[in-house]
Design goal:
single chain, alpha+beta, Rieske Iron-sulfur Protein, 11 strands
């Protein structure tokens, strides 16, 4: 009957063959766990960051009343509002078409939508085209510093003017 070897060096030789494999597996496991932890942390940070994009403020200054001579209608396309001055009265009318949101332009008869042909009179009332309702009027007020402020968050009745 063969006698089992009790030589300690024979076990060490077989253990050395398995050691590199164990180290590689341990290293791969560590890298995998570390990578998943980093991915999880980045995902949580992306999730926590708000995705809301805030547009332009609803209330903004447009200048002093003297900047708008009597009888003018000035369209501020970036703000999507038209400033109308009739003598000592001023108003702010939206230039966003009530049909599909195009920017309407000033025409001889009032406002005209270049996209779908809606027509509005001087006060923003629909005179033709697919627009379902008139252009809204926004609150216009005089700030303490003497500048005019348009508040697009507050709609007023058509025909409401600010006396300046």
């Amino acid at each position: 009957m063969p006698v089992a070897s009790t030589n300690p060096q024979s076990h060490t030789a077989t253990d050395e063959q398995h050691m590199p494999r164990r180290k590689v597996l341990a290293w791969l496991t560590s890298v995998g766990l570390f990578g998943s932890a980093v991915l999880s942390a980045v995902s949580n940070l992306v999730f926590i960051k708000p995705r809301a994009t805030y547009g332009q403020p609803a209330r903004f200054a447009i200048g002093k009343p003297d900047d708008f001579p009597s009888g003018t209608r000035i369209s501020l396309d970036v703000k999507r509002v038209c400033i109308v001055r009739d003598g000592g009265r001023m108003a702010a009318i939206s230039t966003t078409c009530t049909h599909l949101g195009c920017i309407v332009g000033i025409s001889d008869t009032g406002f005209a939508c270049p996209c779908h042909g809606s027509r509005f009179d001087q006060d923003g009332t629909v005179t033709g085209g697919p627009a379902p309702k008139p252009l809204p009027w926004f609150k216009l007020s005089l700030a303490p510093n003497g500048e005019l402020e348009v508040d697009k968050g507050t709609m007023v009745e058509p025909g409401t003017y600010l006396n300046v």
